[in-house]
Amino acid sequence: MKCPRIIRPIVAVVIVIVIAGGRSVPAQSAPAGGTAPAAASPADMVQLREEVATLRQLVEQLRRQVEDLNSARAGAPPVAAAAGARPGAAAAGAPVGAAAAGAPVGAAATAGAGTTPGPRQDTAGPSDLEKQLAAELGVAPSAPSAPSSGSGEGASANASAAAPAWSPAQPIQIAGGGGKNFLNLSLTALAAGGFSSTPDVTGLESGGHDPNQRGFTVQNVETVFDGAVDPYFKGQVNMVLQLDQAGETTVELEEAFLTSSSLPHNLQVKGGTFFTEFGRLNQQHPHSWDFVDQPLVNGRFLGPDGLRGPGARVSWLMPTPFYSELFFTMQNSQGETAASFRDVPGDVVLGRTLQERPVRTVSDLLYSPRWVASFDLSDTQTLLAGISAAFGPNAAGQDTRSRVEGVDLYWKWKPVNSMAGFPFVKWQTEAMSRHYEADAFPLDANGDGTTEGALPAGAYRDWGGYTQVSWGFRRGWVAGLRWDWLSAERGPAADQVGEPHRWRLSPNLTWFPTEFSKLRLQYNRDELGEPGRGGSADSLWMQVEFILGAHGAHKF
Amino acid sequence: MRSNIGKTALFLAAAVAMSSATAAWAAPLTVVATTPELGAVAGAVGGPETKITVLAKPTEDPHFVDARPSHIVTLNHADALIEGGAELEVGWLPPLVDGARNPKILPGAPGRIIASEGIQLLDVPASVDRSQGEIHAAGNPHFMMDPANARIVAAHVADAFCRIDASGCPRYRENAQKFQASLDGRMKGWSATLAPFAGRAIVTYHATWRYFCQRFGLSCGIYLEPKPGIPPSPPHLAEVIRKMTDGGIKIILVEPYQPRRVAETVAEHTGAVLVSVAQFPGGLPGTEGDYLTLMDTNVKAIAAALAGSK
Q1: Which domains does chain B have, with CATH numbers?
Q2: Which residue does chain B place closest to A156, by CA atoms?
Q3: Whole-angstrom Cα distance, residue A458 to residue A440?
Q4: Architecture of domain A184-549
Q5: What are the CA-CA distances from residue A441 to residues A65, A353, A451, A456, B271 (Å)?
Q6: Judged by CB atoms within 8 Å, which residues 88-147 of A form the interface with B?
Q7: Which of A113, A438, A499, A540 has the fewest CB atoms below 10 angstroms from its CB?
Q8: Could you read off the pLDDT tens digit of each residue along chain A, which spans 556 residues?
C-alpha cells in the first residue's frame, strides 16, 4: 500500500542526483594537463538538455505507471490513453466535435473527406454506435469476434505485469513457444457432418478421411511431433486417429521420417515412412485441404489413404536460377497405401482375387520419380508445375506391373498489399493416368464352383483429374469450386470395364476465424456411370477444424 | 523395369556431379534478410559490394508471407540469413530453410543471424494462450521501430559478417560505425521533433509501434484490433471511439497492408486524422532500402499530424 507513495520522493531524489552528476561530467572530462575551462561549452549544454529531456520522459512514464497502479488498486479500469486523459468527458462527442470541426488537415486524407469534414455527433448510446459501425464496415453488429480485453495495452500490460497464480486447471506446457523447446507438438482435429441423397456414403466418397456416413464423421485427429533431431537431421512423426463408420477408433502411423538438414551437392535424403511426393495433393494432410473430401482421382489411383509407405527418398535442388527439384523415391509396394500396386492380398480388383506376391528382386519395390519447377510470373503471381510417375508390381498376376503418371499445375495470385494473406486466388489442377496389367484369371460366372471361362490377360487403362479454384475474397473467407472427373477403367476386351466413369462438382465456402480454426460448407453433385446409366447423388457437408499447439508452417 | 531404374540412377549421378561445380565461391557476401528493415540495415553494414535479398515485400503483412519456392533458391545461395528471431517469421520461414539445404544458414551456424539477440523485447507474455489472440511467445517482434535497437542490430550484423568474411571485416565495422553515427545524428533531430508531443496518445491498428512510442515518449495503448491478429469488430471499435473522444486522441497510424476502411470509419466518428506510416523501407514511396529515410518519413508524418491536431 505504501509503495506508490514512496516512488515519487525516490524519483525526485534520483532526478536531483542524476542532474547533479550530469553537471559535473564536463568538468571531469576536461583534458588532463590542459587548460580546463571553467564554463561548460555549447556542446555540453546541448548534451545536458538532451539528458534532461530523456529524464523528463522517464519521469512521465513512471508517473503514468504510478497512476495505473493507483487506479488498479482503487478498482477502476486503467486509464488506457493515459496521456493527459481528462477524466470522463461529459457529452460523448459534443465538445470534442466542436473543437475538431476543421481538424482533418493532416498527412493523409480521410474517407469521404471532401464532403463531410469533422466527426459525427455520437449522441446515441454505444449499441447504436456499434450498429452504425457495423453498417459502415459491412459486418455483423456483434460479430463473433473474441471479446475485447478492454484495450490492447490492457492485455499486454496485464499479461506481462501479473503472472496468474498456478491452478491445477491450467494446461501443462510440454512444448512451448518462445523458441525454447526441443519438440514441436501440435494437434489438428477435423470433423464433418452432413447428409447425402445416397445412403452409401463410403461408396460415394473415394477417400479414407472423407465423410463416411449420413450424420457425423470424425475425419482425422492428427498429432504431429517434429523438431530438429541434431545438427544433421530433422524428424517428424504424424499419428492419426479416426472413427470409422461404426464408431470404432482406428489409429494409424501415417508418417515417421527423418530428413537431412544439409548434404553436399544440394541433395536431401528422407527416410522412414512417408507420403510419396506424387503430384501436389498426395503429400498434403487433410486438415490443409481446400475441400472437405479428397479428389476422386487421388482416391482411385493412389488409394483412399494416399500413396505412402516405408522407404527412402533422395531429392536434388537443381542449379537453375528458378526453383527446380528432382525427387526419387523407393518404397514398399504392398498394402492399402499402394493401392494400384501389390495392394492387399485377397482383395478383389478387376474381377481378380489379388494374390500373395513376394518381393523377389529389387524391381518389385515401388519407384516414384518426380520433377517440379516454380516460376515467379510477376511480383504477385507464382506458378508451380510438376510431373510425377510411380512404377511397381501389382498382384493381379505374378509378373504384372502398374504405372501411374501425373502432371500438376498450381498458380497463385496475391496482391502486393495484403493483410493476413488476403485476398488471393489459387488454382490447382492435376491429371493422372494409370496403366494396370492383369493376368488371365479363371472366371466362375454363375457361382457354381466350376470355371466357365477366363478373364483375358491384358492392360486396363484409365485416366482422370481434378481442377479447383479457391478465392480468398475477404479476410478469413474463401470461396472454392472443384470439378473432378474419372474415366471408366477399360480392359483389353471391349466389354471389360472395371471402375465406372464418374464426375463431381463441388462448390464450397470456408470461414477462418483465425488461421487455427475453420468452418466449411460444401455441396457435392456426383454423377456416376455413363450418361443415362448409373446414378447421381447430392451431398451437403459442414466441416470444422481446429489446431492446437506449435504454429505449423505449411509449404507453398 | 531394371533398365528404368538403372537409367534414372545414372542420370541422377551425372546431374549431381554437375551441380557440385556451382558452389558459392563469389567473394562478395550474399545475404538474405526476412524483412525489409533488416535488409536495409544489412545493406548499410555490408556496403554496395554485398548482395542483399529480402524475402518479404514491404507492403505485405509480415506474419503471412508466401513461402514461394523461388525463395528456396535464394536461400540456397546465401552466405547469411538474417531473421528477426522473435517468431514473426515462424509461419513461413522454416520450410524454406529446410528446402534450401544450405549448411551456412542452419540454426547455430555463423551465417544464421538472429537480429533480436541482445535486444530487450517488450511485452513478453507470462503465459501463452491463443485465447489472447495470436501472441508472440518471445515478446513483441517489431523491435526495429526503435532506432536504438537498429543501432544494436547494426553492430551485431557487423560482428556476424566479420565472422563469415574476415577479409571484409574492417569494411563492415567502418560501415556499421558510419551507420550508427548517422543514426545518432538523426536521432537527435527526431527526439527534438517529437519532444513537444511527449505524453500524447496515438491509435494504431496492431502493436507494431510499441517500441517507437516508448522511445519517443508517445503513448500507444489503443489498437483497432481487439486482440493481436483478430480483426476489428464493432463493439471493440465503439470502445476505441469512446476512448479517443474521452482522451482527445486524434491520430490513427495506418500501414500499407492494413485495411484503411476501418481506420477511416473510426476517424469519421472521432475527427481523427489518418497518418500513413510504414514499418518497412519501401512501404512508403521514397523509402526503399533505407532505414533512416523511412524513420525520418515516419517521424515527420507523425509530428505533423500531432502538431496539426491540437
Answers
A1: 6-186 (3.40.50.1980), 188-308 (3.40.50.1980)
A2: B123
A3: 8
A4: Beta Barrel (2.40)
A5: 86, 9, 10, 7, 84
A6: 88-89, 92-93, 96-97, 100-101, 103-112, 116, 118-120, 122, 126, 129-134, 136-137, 139, 141-143, 145-147
A7: A540
A8: 445 566 666 665 566 565 555 554 444 444 444 444 456 677 788 788 878 878 887 888 788 778 777 766 665 444 444 333 344 333 333 433 333 333 333 333 333 333 444 444 444 555 788 888 888 887 776 644 444 444 444 334 433 444 455 566 655 555 545 556 788 899 999 999 999 999 989 989 999 999 999 999 999 999 999 999 988 999 999 999 999 999 999 999 999 999 999 899 999 999 999 999 999 999 999 999 999 999 999 999 999 999 999 999 999 999 999 999 999 999 999 999 999 999 999 888 888 888 899 999 999 999 999 999 999 999 999 999 999 999 999 999 889 999 999 999 999 999 999 999 999 999 999 999 999 999 888 887 677 778 777 888 899 999 999 999 999 999 999 999 999 999 998 888 877 778 889 999 999 999 999 989 999 999 999 998 765 557 899 999 999 999 998 867 677 8
Cα–Cα distance between A548 and A552 in angstroms, integer? 10
Per DSSP bridges, beta strands A352-353 and A424-438 are unpaired
Of A120, A145, A516, nearest to B233 by CB-CB distance is: A145
Q: Residue window 151-210, chain A: list those with CB within 8 Å of chain B.
A: 151-157, 159-160, 162-164, 170, 173, 176-179
Residue B189 identity: G
Query: Cell digits for A433?
Result: 493416368
